Amino acid sequence: MLFKQIDLTIDTSKKLEIIDITSKINDLIDIEEGIISVFSKHSTSAIVVNENENGLLDDFEFILKQLVSDKFTYNHDKIDNNASSHLKSFLLGSSECLPIKNYKLDLGTWQSIFFIELDGPRNNRTITLSLIGV
Ligand code: ZN
Predict the structure, then answer these.
(1) Which end of the chain is more exposed for a tag (fewer CB within 10 A), N or C?
(2) pTM of the complete model
């Protein structure tokens, strides 16, 4: 049994950006079978699994902006003016735990794993990968 942690860092270029990190993660997997936790170490970002289809990603951005509207005044904005970014992160979550099979993520045909930047652009966003397996 092997346990290993790897930090993946990425730079983002937009306020809200949906980044497919599936191939980056697959490149780092060196165990045949097991599980991987993909965890973002930032409270204004998220990790989600879904389909990488451009129209759907536009729809996802649209619905996020409807769910957490910029037209309200939020308490956290008094501190650092990014409450809506934190609130979107609350709704989406900061990690996913996924199966590994044959040295790669064992995702469904239409599934990818995404890092969601909610308060960019930022440099050195850190995603911790924790792998357990054989
Ligand atoms: Zn904040």
Answers:
(1) N
(2) 0.96
